[in-house]
Structures are given as C-alpha cells and as structure tokens.
C-alpha cells in the first residue's frame, strides 16, 4: 500500500512540477519530527529548487558562450591591474551604481573570461544580464531597424542590469551601425552597467567607428565614471598552463637569454 501511495505522490509531483518535493519526500519522512516539520522541510526543498531553476534560467537567457566562475580564476595569471581591481569588481557594487567597466588590452589576457564570470555571479544574485559581441549587437540592431522592431529591442536592451559587449575592435561599422550602437549604449549611460572589452586603445576607436565626432562622443559617454582596466600582458591561458607545469614566463625568457 505504501509503495503505491509513494508512486502516486511521485506522479503528482511530476504533474505539478514539484521537483524539490519529488527528490526529498521519502527521505524527509524518516527525518521529520512531526507533520509541521515534514511540511516545512518539503517546502524549503521546493523553494531551493525553484531558486536554482530561476538562476539557471537567468544564466541561460544571458547567452554566455561558456560558463566561467570567479572562484576558478587563477588570480596570479591575470594582468596586474586586474589583480588589483577584481576583488572590488566581484562585489558587483558597480552594477548597483550603474558604472561601466572598460577592459583594454591584447587578446588572450582574460577580458572575456572575467566578464563572463562577473556576469554569471550577477545572474546568481538576481540581476538580469545579456552577453553579446559588439559585431553581433550591431547586426541585431540593423536587422531590427530594417524589420521595424527596433523600438521593441531598445526597450528590452536598456532594462538589462548588466550588458557585456565583447570584442570591440575586431570589425569596423558603417554609419548606420555606428549610429545605432551609439544610440543604444547611450540609453544605458549612467543608469545601467555595461562591460566593454576591446583590444584597441581609445585613440584607435575611430578605426572602428569612422567618424571622429561620433567616436569622441562614444568614448565620452562610456567612460563617464567608468572603471578602466589595463589588460595588457601575457596570455592568461599560457600563464595558467605554465603554472600547472611548474614554470613561468620569466623562467622561459631567462633560459632563452
């Protein structure tokens, strides 16, 4: 009889999508001291499961290319400026204050990796996040503009608590793309946070946007009260590999000399 009842409970849990209750109701029967304790424990498991699903949904909807967590980053493999600033960034206070972060440096130094790690932590504490590359964002904006759905996209875009706009500098844009990008990043300025990663110094942004006036305005808007991080340095991946093998770039350079 008990087996039949348990099977019915499992089926009801599947129908009602009570994953927390489904996973724990049998073991909890032997642990609870009374009915109230039993119900409290089951509801606690269900709330925890719901919170877990909500976080997973935020991370999935953010469109990260892969998962990276702050606690897995090798701090001593990062550029010095990031080593100094990452503990403060990890508090996510910059999101609360609507500050931008601009990481500038050569490829491979950890800009995208750290951006994703900050974005995932933001998802885990309840912020709404979007990851995109700058070229993809411009393409999306132009497609929405052509399809007369730009206003709908802009309404969503400006409401994200954090937008990570990766890879500024790999592709140049025509005037339409530049104007659309400027307009939408400006919508967020001083209100919502944006992380920009780029391999170009500010004076070279004109190579991407073409128009010096628009470029100057873009830099001015994005850098206002922003956190600027110098990511020049050796490859993070190379440093991490060498560390695992018990050597350093300095040792390699010394041996070559």
Which labels suit this protein?
257 residues; globular; alpha/beta; 5-stranded parallel β-sheet; 5 strands; Rossmann fold; disordered C terminus
CATH class of the largest domain: Alpha Beta
Number of domains: 2
Radius of gyration: 24 Å
Cross-sheet strand order for the largest sheet: 2-3-4-1-5
Give the overall shape, derived from the CA principal axes: globular
Relevant CATH superfamily of the largest domain: P-loop containing nucleotide triphosphate hydrolases
CATH fold-level topology of the largest domain? Rossmann fold
Q: Helix amount, in percent?
A: 55-70%
- How many strands appear in the DSSP assignment? 5
N/C terminus separation? 80 Å
Please summarize the sheet with the most strands.
Answer: 5 strands, parallel
Number of helices: 13
Category from helices, strands and their pairing: alpha/beta
Beta-strand share of residues: 5-15%
As residue ranges, the low-confidence spans are 252-257
Write down the overall mean pLDDT: 91
User: In CATH terms, what is the architecture of the largest domain?
Assistant: 3-Layer(aba) Sandwich
């Amino acid at each position: 009889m008990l087996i039949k009842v348990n099977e019915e409970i499992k089926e009801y849990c599947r129908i009602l999508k009570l994953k927390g209750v489904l996973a724990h109701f049998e073991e909890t029967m032997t642990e609870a001291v009374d009915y109230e304790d039993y119900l409290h424990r089951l509801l606690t498991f269900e709330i925890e499961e719901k919170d877990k699903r909500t976080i997973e949904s935020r991370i999935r909807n953010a469109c990260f290319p892969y998962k990276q967590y702050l606690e897995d980053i090798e701090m001593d493999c990062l550029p010095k400026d990031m080593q100094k600033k990452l503990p403060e960034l990890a508090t996510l206070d910059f999101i609360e204050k609507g500050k931008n972060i601009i990481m500038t440096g050569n490829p491979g130094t950890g800009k995208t990796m750290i951006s994703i790690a900050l974005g995932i932590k933001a998802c885990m504490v309840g912020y709404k996040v979007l990851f995109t590359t700058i070229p993809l964002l411009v393409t999306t904006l132009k497609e929405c503009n052509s399809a007369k759905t730009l206003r709908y996209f802009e309404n969503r875009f400006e409401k994200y608590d954090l937008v990570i706009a990766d890879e500024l500098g790999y592709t140049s844009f025509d005037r339409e793309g530049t104007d659309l990008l400027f307009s939408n990043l400006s919508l967020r300025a001083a209100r919502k946070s944006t992380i920009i990663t780029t391999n170009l110094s500010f004076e070279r942004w004109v190579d991407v946007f073409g128009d010096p006036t628009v470029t100057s305005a873009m830099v001015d808007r994005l850098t206002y009260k922003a956190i600027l991080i110098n990511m020049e340095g050796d490859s993070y991946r190379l440093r991490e590999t060498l560390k695992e093998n018990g050597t350093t770039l300095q040792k390699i350079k010394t041996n070559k000399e």
